[in-house]
TrEMBL record:
Family: Belongs to the eukaryotic ribosomal protein eL38 family.
Pfam family, any one: Ribosomal_L38e
Species of provenance: Aduncisulcus paluster
PANTHER family from the UniProt entry: 60S RIBOSOMAL PROTEIN L38 (PTHR10965), LARGE RIBOSOMAL SUBUNIT PROTEIN EL38 (PTHR10965:SF0)
Residue ranges that the Swiss-Prot or TrEMBL entry lists as coiled coil: none
Chloroplast in keyword set: no
InterPro entries: Ribosomal_eL38, Ribosomal_eL38_sf
Keywords associated with the record: Ribonucleoprotein, Ribosomal protein
GO cellular component: ribosome
Protein name per Swiss-Prot or TrEMBL: Ribosomal protein L38e like protein
Gene3D superfamilies noted in UniProt: 3.30.720.90
Amino acid sequence: MPKAIRDISQLVELAKRDDATEIRVKKITSGPRKGIVKLKVRTSKYLHTLTLDRKNAFRASKLISSLRSHVKCVNV
């Protein structure tokens, strides 16, 4: 079951949990939603999604680099 996350700190907390298995990063490169980055955290029960708009998309790379030691990161 998917769930939407609105805050970056919630994503960090979820990624550091024991049941979090991976983070998927999806960068939208064309169309009207160009520049949006989606970060998806897979836990045992839910797939949590954080959508970063163009203004906050630069935070995604910093966030991924800080979470690589906790969870496997996959670029889609």
